Amino acid sequence: MLGVGLLFAGISHLVYGFGNKGSPAWARGFSIGAGALAVILSFLVMGSHYAGAVAVSVFVGIALLIIGIEVTVVGITGRRIPMMPSDIRR
């Protein structure tokens, strides 16, 4: 269950990072980085439960740190990041 959830979360971060050209490059980079970590971790969790349990503590912490830094910096800079696909301008 955790592996599938991480897979969907990672894919959504990757799609957002690659698809939203209106965001700053650093915000897109953080989103792509967090998404890639989540996808890698999801395959690790689905492949081996023991390795997944060990890696969850490391990779989820790193992914949450990256996401937290991204959200904090966006909040400090005052930029508005669209949350719904209809808000994304192409």
Characterise this structure:
With 90 residues, the chain is an all-alpha fold. It has one domain (2-78). The chain has helices spanning 2-19, 25-47, 49-77. Helix 1 runs antiparallel to helix 2 (25-47) and helix 2 (25-47) packs antiparallel against helix 3. The longest helix has 29 residues, at 49-77. The chain starts with a helix and ends in a 13-residue tail after the last helix. The mean pLDDT is 81.
Could you write a compact summary of the structure shown?
This protein is mainly alpha-helical. The protein contains 3 helices and no strands.
State the main characteristics:
3 helices, elongated, about 80% helix, mainly alpha, about 90 residues
Describe the secondary structure blueprint for this structure:
Layout (H helix, E strand, L loop, with lengths): L1 H18 L5 H23 L1 H29 L13
Helix pairs in contact: 1-2, 2-3
